[in-house]
């Protein structure tokens, strides 16, 4: 019956939903959709980055460099400081996001790395707030660095996903699971983490997520809404259910979500009724959220994504003269960007040769019944399987 | 069931030493045609394709197409335990998750069995079309190795240009620049020292020396190396493996600045 019971500690399933919950759900139920990749394997690719995280990093960096970037600090408690990211997204309102290249980004993060630790310590008790000024400064900085910047009409996640769907970029990098919900074919986590942390990049493949969960995209969107998204509250208990109860039942559940009001659904199957105490907020705009995910406000009317040489003078005048950065550090960072640019002119093999299906079945078998038949069907692609 | 007996066991040892610099893990594919491998380095810039044809083995049995994921460093560790004169047999049973390397001394007085765990490797297989190359250079492998090594002490990249005059390898770095030209040279009495150039049209491409240097690890397999160049394609650096196969390295060229990057 396809029952999948999580073996994890049940209490851990009462995690706050949203991102952590969805990741766990995918790890339990769609392991094939997640792949650990090395940072280098994205070499020479165009990647759309949701900049909110980076802006936060910039702010951290700026605090250390004692620049004149504005950041308001208040004596909030620790936890708010740590969730600074969320604060950012919510407060910035119309959040501006950028598309930029990994190399340059990596260099930037590297450039601030030394300062990072102190800064994080200092900032952990503060709330960092992004203002329009920050966004404009960041855009200006990126453009001076020669990195193309795309401004999203509304949601940046959606814009990044649309760029990816339309093949303008290879993948979307973000820390926010919403990218998947917006249907970004390839979604990368931890790409922007400092390289010193040595966290491998986690690549999510939406097509495989759907395949493994046996959901349609619409159902998956519903699932994400249930788990919690930026647009409406999560429903407590859903994740608990999903990790413990039959996948099939859940699909039905999603199906009913389409046709019935939530309140009535609760009594639909005995399985779900027994232990779940759904608390549906009175004003729960799930239909609105659904619409936002399905028909996001995005623009593809963007200039071609092109990287140019950094504007050295511009950078120095902006960072050193206007914002009081140390000139040596800025010059060094510019050098890094330049050398990264050279490196990126290396071509990738995939631009010349296209992947084909492998012809042989793995000797070491795990879940190969399907794979083997597929491989057999594709035999003609290579040298034939003739016996000697 | 798989059983491959290779009398010249040292070939396998050399093959492994030649590729493990470039890739750490790879799937070895076994089919009726032969024992092969295709793998890319982690940044997907270089690819190695190796084939040992079935005919080259003294005994070759492969009931169905198989792929065996191996950690090449571990495999090299095991193969280093084989003597250079030893006969190597590769064995694997259906459904098993190990492969066995058997080393027999030439006099048959010592037999060693090494069993290695296989691994699941999720790798992409690229389709490489047969293409006509604009220029093909054949030269002594030792010479090519020397050139790459010398140039890499000066710069990071090498420009390989083929003209009617010969093939030119050039680089430049912070301390200066270097140019090495090799002219066509057909020494009749020593074919292994010949340099041959077949050129349809002049071609000039830039490559990272780091990869070239790692390719030249295969020089032990063959006296001659063949370098095939086309402006639209990755370079192919090929070493023959004693009449029974080849090891080919593909390297994507460096792209000119203003050229469009693929998404």
UniProtKB/TrEMBL annotation, chain A:
<dbReference type="Pfam" id="PF00867">
    <property type="entry name" value="XPG_I"/>
</dbReference>
<dbReference type="InterPro" id="IPR006085">
    <property type="entry name" value="XPG_DNA_repair_N"/>
</dbReference>
<feature type="compositionally biased region" description="Basic and acidic residues">
    <location>
        <begin position="364"/>
        <end position="373"/>
    </location>
</feature>
<dbReference type="InterPro" id="IPR029060">
    <property type="entry name" value="PIN-like_dom_sf"/>
</dbReference>
<dbReference type="InterPro" id="IPR006086">
    <property type="entry name" value="XPG-I_dom"/>
</dbReference>
<dbReference type="GO" id="GO:0003677">
    <property type="term" value="F:DNA binding"/>
</dbReference>
<feature type="region of interest" description="Disordered">
    <location>
        <begin position="341"/>
        <end position="388"/>
    </location>
</feature>
<dbReference type="GO" id="GO:0017108">
    <property type="term" value="F:5'-flap endonuclease activity"/>
</dbReference>
<dbReference type="InterPro" id="IPR023426">
    <property type="entry name" value="Flap_endonuc"/>
</dbReference>
<keyword id="KW-0255">Endonuclease</keyword>
<keyword id="KW-0597">Phosphoprotein</keyword>
<keyword id="KW-0496">Mitochondrion</keyword>
<comment type="function">
    <text>Structure-specific nuclease with 5'-flap endonuclease and 5'-3' exonuclease activities involved in DNA replication and repair. During DNA replication, cleaves the 5'-overhanging flap structure that is generated by displacement synthesis when DNA polymerase encounters the 5'-end of a downstream Okazaki fragment. It enters the flap from the 5'-end and then tracks to cleave the flap base, leaving a nick for ligation. Also involved in the long patch base excision repair (LP-BER) pathway, by cleaving within the apurinic/apyrimidinic (AP) site-terminated flap.</text>
</comment>
<feature type="domain" description="XPG-I">
    <location>
        <begin position="143"/>
        <end position="215"/>
    </location>
</feature>
<dbReference type="GO" id="GO:0000287">
    <property type="term" value="F:magnesium ion binding"/>
</dbReference>
<keyword id="KW-0234">DNA repair</keyword>
<dbReference type="GO" id="GO:0008409">
    <property type="term" value="F:5'-3' exonuclease activity"/>
</dbReference>
<dbReference type="InterPro" id="IPR036279">
    <property type="entry name" value="5-3_exonuclease_C_sf"/>
</dbReference>
<feature type="compositionally biased region" description="Basic residues">
    <location>
        <begin position="377"/>
        <end position="388"/>
    </location>
</feature>
<dbReference type="InterPro" id="IPR008918">
    <property type="entry name" value="HhH2"/>
</dbReference>
<dbReference type="GO" id="GO:0005730">
    <property type="term" value="C:nucleolus"/>
</dbReference>
<dbReference type="GO" id="GO:0005654">
    <property type="term" value="C:nucleoplasm"/>
</dbReference>
Automatic annotation (TrEMBL), chain B:
<dbReference type="Pfam" id="PF02747">
    <property type="entry name" value="PCNA_C"/>
</dbReference>
<dbReference type="Pfam" id="PF00705">
    <property type="entry name" value="PCNA_N"/>
</dbReference>
<dbReference type="GO" id="GO:0003677">
    <property type="term" value="F:DNA binding"/>
</dbReference>
<dbReference type="InterPro" id="IPR022659">
    <property type="entry name" value="Pr_cel_nuc_antig_CS"/>
</dbReference>
<comment type="function">
    <text>This protein is an auxiliary protein of DNA polymerase delta and is involved in the control of eukaryotic DNA replication by increasing the polymerase's processivity during elongation of the leading strand.</text>
</comment>
<dbReference type="GO" id="GO:0019985">
    <property type="term" value="P:translesion synthesis"/>
</dbReference>
<keyword id="KW-0235">DNA replication</keyword>
<protein>
    <recommendedName>
        <fullName>DNA sliding clamp PCNA</fullName>
    </recommendedName>
</protein>
<dbReference type="GO" id="GO:0030337">
    <property type="term" value="F:DNA polymerase processivity factor activity"/>
</dbReference>
<dbReference type="GO" id="GO:0006272">
    <property type="term" value="P:leading strand elongation"/>
</dbReference>
<dbReference type="InterPro" id="IPR022648">
    <property type="entry name" value="Pr_cel_nuc_antig_N"/>
</dbReference>
<feature type="domain" description="Proliferating cell nuclear antigen PCNA C-terminal">
    <location>
        <begin position="127"/>
        <end position="254"/>
    </location>
</feature>
<dbReference type="InterPro" id="IPR046938">
    <property type="entry name" value="DNA_clamp_sf"/>
</dbReference>
<feature type="domain" description="Proliferating cell nuclear antigen PCNA N-terminal">
    <location>
        <begin position="1"/>
        <end position="125"/>
    </location>
</feature>
<keyword id="KW-0539">Nucleus</keyword>
<dbReference type="InterPro" id="IPR022649">
    <property type="entry name" value="Pr_cel_nuc_antig_C"/>
</dbReference>
<keyword id="KW-0238">DNA-binding</keyword>
<dbReference type="GO" id="GO:0043626">
    <property type="term" value="C:PCNA complex"/>
</dbReference>
<dbReference type="GO" id="GO:0006298">
    <property type="term" value="P:mismatch repair"/>
</dbReference>
<dbReference type="GO" id="GO:0006275">
    <property type="term" value="P:regulation of DNA replication"/>
</dbReference>
<dbReference type="InterPro" id="IPR000730">
    <property type="entry name" value="Pr_cel_nuc_antig"/>
</dbReference>
<comment type="similarity">
    <text>Belongs to the PCNA family.</text>
</comment>
């Amino acid at each position: 019956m396809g029952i999948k019971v999580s073996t994890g500690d049940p209490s851990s399933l009462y995690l706050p939903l949203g991102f952590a919950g969805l990741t766990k759900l995918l790890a339990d139920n769609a392991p094939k959709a997640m792949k650990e990749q090395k940072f280098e394997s994205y070499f020479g690719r165009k990647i759309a980055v949701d900049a909110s995280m980076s802006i936060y990093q910039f702010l951290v960096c700026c605090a250390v460099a004692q620049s004149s970037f504005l950041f308001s600090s208040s004596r909030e408690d620790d936890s708010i400081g740590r969730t600074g990211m969320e604060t950012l997204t919510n407060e910035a309102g119309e959040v501006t996001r950028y598309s930029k290249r990994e190399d340059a980004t990596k260099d930037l993060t590297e450039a601030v790395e030394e300062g990072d630790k102190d800064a994080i310590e200092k900032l952990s008790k503060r709330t960092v707030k992004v203002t329009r000024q920050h966004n404009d400064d960041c855009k200006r900085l990126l453009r001076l660095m020669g990195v193309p910047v795309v401004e999203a009409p509304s949601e940046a996640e959606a814009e990044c996903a649309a760029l990816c769907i339309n093949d303008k970029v290879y993948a979307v990098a973000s820390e926010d699971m919403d990218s998947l919900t917006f249907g970004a074919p390839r979604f990368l986590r931890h790409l922007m983490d400092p390289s010193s942390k040595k966290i491998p990049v986690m690549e999510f493949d939406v097509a495989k997520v759907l395949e493994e969960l046996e959901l349609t995209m619409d159902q998956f969107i519903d699932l994400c809404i249930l788990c919690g998204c930026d647009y409406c509250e999560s429903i407590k208990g859903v994740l608990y259910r999903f990790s413990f109860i039959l996948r099939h039942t859940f699909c039905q559940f999603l199906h009913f979500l389409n046709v019935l009001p939530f309140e009535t659904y609760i009594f639909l199957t005995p399985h779900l009724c027994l232990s779940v105490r759904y608390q549906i907020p009175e004003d729960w705009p799930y239909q609105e959220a659904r619409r936002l995910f399905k028909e996001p406000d995005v623009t593809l009317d963007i200039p071609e994504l092109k990287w140019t040489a950094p504007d050295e003078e511009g950078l120095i005048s902006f960072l050193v003269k206007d914002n009081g950065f140390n000139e040596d550090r800025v010059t060094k960072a510019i050098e890094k960007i330049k050398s990264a640019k050279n490196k990126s002119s290396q071509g990738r093999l995939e631009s010349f040769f296209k992947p084909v299906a492998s012809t042989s079945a793995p000797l070491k078998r795990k879940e190969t019944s399907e794979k083997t038949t597929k491989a057999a069907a594709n035999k003609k692609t290579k040298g034939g399987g003739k016996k000697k | 069931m798989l059983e491959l007996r290779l009398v010249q066991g040292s070939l396998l040892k050399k093959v492994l030493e030649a590729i493990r610099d470039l890739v750490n893990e790879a799937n070895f594919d076994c089919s009726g045609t032969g024992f092969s491998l295709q793998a890319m380095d982690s940044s997907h810039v270089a690819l190695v394709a190796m084939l040992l044809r079935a005919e080259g083995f003294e005994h070759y049995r492969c009931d169905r197409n198989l792929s065996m994921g191996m950690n090449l460093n571990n495999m090299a560790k095991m193969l280093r335990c084989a003597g250079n004169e030893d006969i190597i047999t590769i064995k694997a049973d259906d459904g098993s998750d190990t492969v066995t390397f058997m080393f027999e001394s030439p006099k048959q007085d010592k037999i060693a069995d090494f069993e290695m765990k296989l691994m699941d490797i999720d790798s992409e297989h690229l389709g490489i079309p047969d293409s006509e190359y604009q220029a093909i250079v054949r030269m002594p492998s030792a010479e090519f190795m020397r050139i790459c090594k010398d140039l890499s002490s000066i710069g990071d990249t090498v420009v390989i240009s083929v003209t009617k005059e010969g093939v030119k390898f050039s680089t430049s770095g912070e301390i200066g620049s270097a140019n090495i030209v090799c002219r066509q040279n057909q020494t009749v009495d020593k074919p292994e020292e010949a340099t041959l150039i077949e050129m349809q049209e002049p071609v000039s491409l830039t490559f990272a020396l780091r990869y070239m240097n790692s390719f030249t690890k295969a020089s032990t397999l063959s006296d001659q190396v063949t370098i095939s160049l086309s402006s639209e394609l990755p370079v192919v650096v090929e070493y023959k493996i004693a009449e029974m196969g080849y090891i080919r390295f593909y390297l994507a060229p460096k792209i000119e600045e203003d050229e469009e990057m693929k998404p």
